Amino acid sequence: MTRSAAPDGDSPLALEPLLELIEPAAQRPAAEVARCVADEHPVLAGRVRCAFDGAGEAWVPCLAGVRPRVGDRVLVLAASGAPGGIVAGVVDGFRRRLDPDPRDTNVRRLKADEVIRIESDEGVPLVEVRATEAGPAVRLMSKDVTMESAGALRLSGDSVEIVARQGGVDVRATDDVKLNGEQIHLN
Fold first, then answer.
1. In total, how many domains does the chain have?
2. CATH of the domain at 58
3. Cβ-contact 12, 6 below 8 angstroms
4. Same structural domain for residues 34 and 78?
5. How far, in Å, CA of 53 to CA of 32, rounded?
């Protein structure tokens, strides 16, 4: 090891020869495609094990809502604060995608004399939910209400009852109307 004289007369070790011996760390690209080899971390949620071409494997966190499966090719983005990168999406997935598990974002426990009311931004009541002895009751607060679906609209229960307090019940269809039941009672 050589010493060189510093401008102030001290003689510290010369760093230049040492720096030449250190190989620079391999830089990962800003974005790369990896293969998901394990889709469930044994302890941490939201992480998958990725195999990188020629660079080994690592557990990598995923953006919220991204759920790669084993065999999927994933896009891994470099990010400060995430040394191994972040899985930003699935490049091509061959397995059927599962919807993410729903999570509670707002839970409210109702006492017998309480309701949850949803109002428009003008303060007009839209929906009211209350707990009754028979179970939850959902009340649509407008005088006239439209329930609409772009696809099929289904009402399902052990039994279904439609009651018109005033006036009749009007059933319309652009195709056949089918009533299927063990017995159909008219009047």
1. 2
2. 2.40.50.140
3. yes
4. yes
5. 9
Its domain, for residue 122, covers 106-140
Domain identity same for 84 and 112: no
Give a yes or no: residue 165 inside a domain. Answer: no
Based on the fold, state whether residues 87 and 110 are members of the same structural domain: no
Burial classification of residue 174, based on how many CB atoms lie within 10 Å of its CB (0-12 exposed, 13-18 middle, 19 or more buried):
exposed
- pLDDT, one tens digit per residue, over 47-106 is 999 999 887 899 999 998 888 988 899 999 988 888 889 999 998 766 666 666 666 777
Query: What pTM value is reported for the model?
Result: 0.40
145-174, pLDDT tens digit by residue? 888 888 888 888 888 888 888 888 888 889
Tokens of 94: 């061959």
- Domain-located, residue 11: no
Helix (H, G, I), strand (E, B) or coil at 18: helix
Q: Percent helix, strand, coil in the chain (nearest 5)?
A: 5, 30, 65
At position 108, the amino acid (one-letter code) is R
